[in-house]
Each structure stands twice: as C-alpha cells, then as structure tokens.
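Lecture 7 notes: from sequence to structure.
We start with the chain below.
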Amino acid sequence: MKKKLIILSVALLSILSFSAFITDDDPITALLKKLDEFSSKYAQEKVYLHLDKPYYAIGDNIWFKAYIINSKTSAPSTLSKILYVELINEKDSIKKQLKLPMESGITAGDFKLTDSLSEGNYRIRAYTQYMRNAGPEFFYDKTIKIGNSWANKVFTKTNNVLSTEGTAEKVATTISFTSKDGVPYISSNVTYEVQLSNRSVAKGKGVTNSKGEIVVNYTNTQPDVYKSGKIIATITLENNKKIVKIIPVKTTSSNIDVQFFPEGGGLVEGLPTKVAIKAVNSNGLGQDITGKIIDNEGTEILSFETTYLGMGSLILNPLPGKIYSAKVKFANGNEKTIPLPKPAPSGYVLSVNNTDTSKIAVKVYLSPDLINKGELSLVGQHNGSVYFSTRIPTGKQLVSVSIPKNEFPSGIVQITLFSPENLPVCERLAFINNAIDKIDVNVQNLNANYGKRANVSADLMATNVGKPLQGSFSISVTNTAAVTPDLENESNILTSLLLTSDLVGYVEKPNHYFLDNTMKTRIELDNLLLTQGWRKINWKNVASGQFPAITYQPEKGMNISGTITKGGKPVANGKVALFSNSGGFFATDTVSDANGRFNFKDIIFGDSVKFIVQARTSKENKNVEINLDVQPAQIVTVNKNTGDIEVNVNESMMEYLNQSDKYFNEQVKRGLLNRTILLDEVKIVEKKNPAPNSSNLNGAGRADFIVTAKDLETAFSLSQYIQGRIAGVTVTNGQAFSMRAGGRSPMAIVLDGMNMGGEFNMDDIPVNDIESVEVLKPGANTAIYGSNGGSGVLVITTKRGAGTESNYNRYSPGIVTYSPKGYYPMREFYSPKYTATPDPKPDFRSTVYWNPHLVTDPTGKANLNYFNTDQAGTYRIVIEGIDVEGNLARKVVTYKVN
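Predicted structure tokens for the same chain:
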C-alpha cells in the first residue's frame, strides 16, 4: 500500500509540475519537447455544424451554424478565416458549395433545396483549406436524408433477398414504383444498371407487374470487396416521360467481419490482457455475435459475447507455447473460426480501467525477463498537449497508477507506455468527460404550455463553474410531431468536437455515448475506443522530427495572386491591374516583386464575380504571361458513413414529407417559393446555335452578325477578318466603330461575360482561341446593355470561355479573366411576428425558429423571442454554443403547444 501511495504521489506531482518536469534531464524530455513543437506548429482544426433539423425535404432550407476550433487549445480557431461547406449527392458529386467568412471560429449559412435536386442520402462536408493537410478523414462529413414529395412523381420502395451460391452472393432486389398516393405504375417499362463499388455488375430491363414491381437479379462474385453500390433504374411513364431513380444497395453480402484488438497493442505470454471485439456486417453496422476462445489443442478457454453494436471484450491470459483462435457463432447459426494475434514471449501489457468518473486506473504488466531492466515512462496527452507523465519502476511485474481525470480537458486521451529506450511499446485511447469545460445553459421564464401562434419569450442563462459567461450560441426549435428527433444519430457539438472528429472511420450512433453517464454506457464507449484501431500521434515521426509538409496554408482572406513572366523569366516591377464591373466597378493595381510575383490581398467579393487581370512590363511591354495561383479542388471521397445510408428515403420520412407539402404549397401561393415547371418532353428540331457558350444578354446567338471559329481559321487577326465584312462596322487600330452610332466611340467589347470597355484591343486575343463573335449594332439588340451598348457591342466567347477547372482563361499577351469562388451571401431565417402583423393564412413551418447568432451579454443572458406555428405538439429547443476558451454547450428543453 505504501509503495502504491508513493507511485500515486509521483503521478500527481508530475501532473501539477509538468513545466518543471520538461526541464529535467530525463531522457524522455526531448521526445515530449518535440511533441509540443509538433502539435504547436501543426495544430489541426476541427469543424462542427449545428443543423436545424435531422432530415429535410426538397423545398426546405438546411440552416446551419459552424463552430471551428483549434485542436491544440480547444478554443475557437483563429488560424483560418474561410470555411467551405458542400452538399454532396449519392453520386459523390458536389451539388452546392458555399464559401463562408469566419470570425473567431464562427460562421453560418444555409442550403436551399430546390426541386432540381432529387431525394437521396446526401452528405454535408465542411473543411478549411488548412484542414486539407491532414486529409479528408478529419473533415466534418455527415450523411443526411433528403426526401422528395413536393416535386416527385415516382416513389420507390426496395426489398433485398440474399442467397449463397458457392463463394458468391446472389441478390434479388424487388423495386416497386408508385405515385405519391401509393398507386402502382402498372405495365411500365424499366431499364436498370447495378453498380457495386462503381463497377457495373448487371444491366437489364423489365415491365412492372400489377403491384408496380420489377425484380432485379444480380450476383456479387466478390462479397468481401463489393459491399455497397446502387441501382440506376429508369421508368417510362404513359406520356413517355422518363424518370431516373438512384436506389442505394447496402445488402450485397451476408459476410460479417470480426476483428479482435488486444488492449495496448498485443498479447504477451503469461500476462492477462483485455481483448476487444468488433463485428460489422456488410451494411457497415455492428452485428452482435457469440463465441468461445480455443487453444491450438482444441481446448475451450472461455466464452464471450458482444453487448452493443457488435462490440464487447474478454480477458485472456495466454500460456507459453499456446496459440489461440475464436470460434464465432452468428445469428443465422453459421460459425467461423478466426485466429487471434500470436502472443509474444516477452513484453509489456497496458491495462486501463476508465469506468470510474473521477480517475483512470492504469496497470502495467511486465514479463519476468524485463524486471529491473530500467524505468518505463507513462504519458497521457490530448491532441499533442501532455497532461500527465510519470516514471514507472520495473522492480515488480505489476505497477498500478491512478490518474485524476479533472486535470484533463474533455475528449480523447492517448495513453502511451515507453520502454527504457524511449520507444512506445503499448498504447490505447480513453475518453474524458469533465464538467469543468462545459457551459451550463438554463432557459428561464419558459412556460410548460403555450397556445398556437403564441409568443415565446424566454431568457438563456449561460454559466461555467457558477460564473456567468459571454458566448456564441445557436438555437433550433422544432415540433416533434412533425420532426421526430433521432436521438442517437443527430448532430451534437459534444459528440463531434470531443469524439468523432479525432477518430478515423465510421462511428455508429455516436450520440448514444452522450445520452447518459451510466457505467454501462462508459463501458460501451471504452469498447468503441479499443476497437477503433487508430492513433493520432505517430511517435516514430515525432522522434525523428519528420514533420508533415504544409501544402495548404491557413486562409486569412481572399487574395488574387500570381506570377508574371516574359520568355520564361520573371518580370520584376511589372505593372499589374485588377478590375471588375460585376455588380459595380472595381479597380486596383500593384507592382510585381523581383520574382515576378504579385498579390492583391484581402479582396471581399461575392459569388459569380468576374475579374480581369492585366499586366505589362515597367516599360509598357504587354507581351507577358500571367499565371494565377489557383488552389486545386478538393476531391470527393467515397462516403464513409455507410451505416447511415437509408435505402428507402421517402418511405422512411413520409409523415414529415406530407407535413412539409402543406407548408411548401402555402409558400408557393404566397410567392415565397418557386416550383420548376417540368413540361412533357417535346422534340423540336431547330437550327444549330453558332454561339452556344455565349454570355450574350439577349440570349446566345441573338445578334446582327455572328463570326464562328470556322470563319476565323484562315484569319490573321480578328480586326483583319471583320474589316469590310460587316456592313456599318469599321475597324481602326484594333477597335471597332459602328457607323450607325456616328463612328465616334468604339463599340464595347464583352469578353466571356466581362465588359472590357471600348478601349480594349480586340487583337490582343489570338484568333485560334475564339469560339464566336456576336456583333450587336446599336438598336434593339444593344438596349439590354444600356448606355454601355450605345455604340454597339462585340460579344466575344473564347474556346475556353465556357469554364475550366482553374476558373480562369489566359489570353496572350498580358490579360487573364478570372472567376474565383466568392463569399456566399448569408440569408436570414424568416420568423413571423403575429402580434404586429396578424396573418390568417395557415402556418405549417417544420423549423419553428432558427437563430445562429445568439450572443450572451456580460451577465450571461440572452433573450429568445419567436412565435409558435399552427401545429400542436411537443416543441423541442436545442441550444449549442461555445465561449472564447472553448467551453462547449448543449442543452435540450421542451414545452407543449395545445
């Protein structure tokens, strides 16, 4: 007992005086200093989005607030100033991307779900450019269901039946096609293609039966490889209208993957070790199993079973010379034998008991040959910051250490055991959940019951350790009668920033671990961390000083930069001008440095803004080349959240869709929501447009005269071709003049949608780069251009003007047009005020109230004020937030509306 107390006192001393510890001549000091250097220099960012609802319908808005923190400090990040948020469909295609300005790690935005989108399992992905250095595994990436009833004619429902044929899996998928009212589409032609892991495995066609069904049969010859995919089905309706449906395929294999994870890393002969178990089916979901451990002689050692989502654990004490296997039994009666890792004859075992709410109990076991072979080191760190370290003597086979939890921040702790040679020999993850870094939120003056359309006025009170604090909060109010909360899977600021953002791979039902703090839940969370099989800090790289390259620097603002060269050599002191007339005139200039580089810093602009960059040498020589700095786009990786994919999206949320239809139809009547009018297919034969990519405001091809690329094939220059060919137009020094306008002012030139003005020399554009030139003489075709078109307009479209990956087109010499991604204009959530403006029209809002900008004052208070809808039910208020120190808040309260 006395020795245990000494070890504990050493542990406590090392926690409370770590700054003194790192100045010691302890051999592990240098390694921990490198860790601190690494984590400080390469601090990662984490992103979490608070969404107003767990699922949506076409016609809805996805409202969100983003919280971005520095993983090193856990405080709101000041590294980046720009956040990218993307809406990705089931084809892994980005449908919408928002670029949002951040202030102290906070921003907000929304996606409008227009009826050009279809139903499906969408993903919302969020990241900063700086986060790309660590890889997309650390992005915020959530799968959400988006249903479609309001703009949908065909509803599908699928059912899969599996059978085994040798090593292959045969799948029979029944697809039913019905109208919104459930009326089957009978005798309709359907063509289909089955794709598994983007590989086509079957194609065919059929005719729906009396129930509107067809059966799609296909074989999965490699069930261990092809575990998911989709069926692309096209049904032809009576009016010959073709409707394409993308149906997720999850059930392609009956195989269950079972893995065993020894705590700390491996088994050692003669040392008891906890072994975690994880069983996952082909859908990516946990599958509970039972089984027994047998040795190489067939002797049964113990039995086991998983207890939650296919996870569990057992204790195994390997005997010398024995090899062990697990005989696993599945729910369908099948059995499978899986070899366990081979025990090592010598080594260490790290045992961590994290079920106590106040401390972590650590035991270190040594094999007999390692006794009295130098001291070990035990280190506990969180995102690169060391909060615990101590020396462990090796005089006995078992050493116990108690680590107080209140010294750690909430989140994942990485506990590492180092050998006397300072090599990591055992490691495991543990979770800390302390109240000290949580914001206590109370909603005051909230009644238990309200009436329909009643005014709700309540106060939010935020405190930490009993003291009021100022923080930034977001609040969502929904009616649970219309929006059923998904308690174990909904977005949660605690789950995301403290748990899943530090783990690679899919975590099933992450919020389950935060719904209560019982012993059972703590054990289930511990099993999750034991089976995750990943560590954030690579000690080998830290020890060798192999720090990662920073390819993407933190964005502090929007810049337009690049390099000027002439003959391949940089142009120093070159004159560079930047201007735009999108939404008003903007112009600025700068000078290139000795390396030919230029940079227009901190430019603020919205989406769809086009710029022109012009460059000259210091002696006005325009024969230079401009190369802009353009970030390559982030690729879309395959959805990792396979377990969250819903096969029958519309059916699973039909009650919500019916409720939403009422609201959308009412919005259409008021002119607040537009519906795309889809006409029956009509085949029209028309003359080919000679200027298909034109930005002509009258419409592509509507001009007095059109010059095509074919016309210019033998032309020396554009002015040479135009001169004498177009009645009423003359050309002088590369500028066109309209005789109808008196020939006094040159015609305006619009290049790929950019108004270049009349002073621009058309011969600056090589003729082989031109796709079309539309000549608009003064009159009806120029009226739309206002005073800018008074002397006529030349609309020039280049062959690259239809858009490129880099969003800019280079013209030689000395000019570039550029259309970078600009800031998304933030919209405000509409909340009616019935006392001021009584409205007899029905109110069917599914999101009752959304406010992403709720800030508490110095007393910790903020006011909530909104009106209920016409729908009775239990209204649910979800409040989340953060303060300047990174303390997190989440509070859920409810009230009744009668």
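Points to note: DSSP finds nine helices and 54 strands in the chain. Residues 55 and 145 are 5 Å apart (CA to CA).
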